[in-house]
Amino acid sequence: MKSFGYNITEDRQIDFDANDRNVTVFINEIEPSILLCMGCGSCTATCTTGHFTDFNIRKIHTLIQRGELKHLKKEIMKCMLCGKCQLVCPRGVNLRNLILSIHTALEKSGL
Amino acid sequence: MSKTAIIIGGGTAGMETASQLARLGVEVDLIEKQPHLGGHLKNWDRLFPNRRNSDEVFDYLEKGMNDGISLHLNAEISNIRKSEEKFTIALQDGKELQSDALVIATGYEVFDARKKEEYGYGIYDNVITSVELEEFFRSNKQKNLLEGVASKRIGIIHCVGSRDEKAGNLYCSKLCCVTGVKQAIEIKELMPDAEIFCFYMDLRMFDRHFEEMYYEAQEKWGIQFIRGRLSEASENTDHTLLVKVEDTLTGLPLKMKVDLLILLVGFVPSPETRRLAAMLGLKEGDDRFLCPADEHTITNSTEIPGVFLAGTVKGPAGIANTITDARATAIQVADYLK
To answer: Chain A: nearest CA to B262, how far in angstroms?
Structure first.
């Protein structure tokens, strides 16, 4: 076929209906405090990893709630589990267990 | 014989309840532990949202202190007894007062910012509370806030001690947001070349003219708003402060040097409110503020006949709502005393 120099751009919307939310449900069940996040960003502000890489634990949390699991495995490997995020969280979210739950969920689902 | 009521607390709620009850023909004893009336209102310079002088509201309240109200200043309560529909209050100076009804109007106090140690209040030189800033406005009307300081960048931190499980307060104090915006504008009036940043989680501009103040702060004064909760502040060797937040709208961690940090401290029930509640057996909510008999419909009475609540003993509230609430309490008390 003749190429006209055009291609199809990948859709970057969160397709909420198409996303598989089984992993989300699984993680939320292991660590229900995850549901308490109000998006203040204290966790990310204090995160040493986030100061030097593009790791953003608040964003990871929100993406999981939307069923967006792309790059998740690569992302969580950056976390050092120091727990500072959990120390500053005003809603008492157990963020270390969020990371550990993601590991478990990804292992189980083979992602 | 005319009926009597004792009102505990001579702030905005207590003064207005007393004034309205006296007008309705009830004999009132108004007990205040401070040497003067007015409570927290006396600590304000100008009030949101129209930035009128707080003294004008105090003058209004004071005009209500007419005949029929006996004032007891510097009065500490040592004991309350209830017998045969009568309340007997023993004051620490040995005096005893009796009444047919009791109004608790002992209000709130501001959150102790030292509890958020990571914000450095009481540790670093240039971290102050919104209350201290208001005191500054009240006593140094024309002075530069940062006299002698060359650069002028100021951070205003929302939600200090509110919406914070770690501080033990899950509730929103409601009025810190608008206070921060008001104070930001007032700083700009004093120091037009100051750079002001409000660090917020949500701006709760819920009441009339609040949103317009936020608009004015952006349009006329160039106040900047960064959506992120302060994680920590640390002091530099030159006594400026380094603040760390996530700029959540860009998704990036942000650090910034400021010359002054202002902490918007929220409401907590006053120790006197809690002490009297324990003495009388009044119900406290999860937030430790007092519970009226019904949260929607019976908002000024308690489950104990003859005991009423007015103002911020029931949770955060501004001046206008407190005055309205005090009037509702007065009507409930007068009805009870019929």
So the answer is: 18
Q: How confident is the model at residue B145 (pLDDT cuts 50, 70, 90)?
A: low
| pLDDT, tens only, B204-215 | 999 999 999 999
Give the per-residue SS3 of B272-309: HHHHHHHHHCCCECCCCCECCCECCCECCECCCCCEEE
Gyration radius of chain B's alpha carbons: 22
Closest CA to B201 of B177, B228, B182, B224: B228
ω into B49 cis (within 30 of 0): yes
Q: Are residues B229 and B120 in the same domain?
A: yes
Both B128 and B261 in a single domain?
Answer: yes
Quick: pLDDT tens for A2-27: 888 888 888 889 999 999 889 999 99
- Listed in order, strand segments (DSSP E) in B9-116 are 27-31, 46-47, 52-53, 69-72, 77-83, 86-91, 96-99, 101-104, 108-110
**pTM for this structure?**
0.93
Q: Does B253 contact A58 at a Cβ distance shorter than 8 Å?
A: no
Structural domains of chain A, ranges and CATH numbers in brackets: 22-109 (1.10.1060.10)
Query: What does pLDDT average to over chain B?
Result: 95
Q: Note whether B253 contacts A44, CB cutoff 8 Å.
A: yes
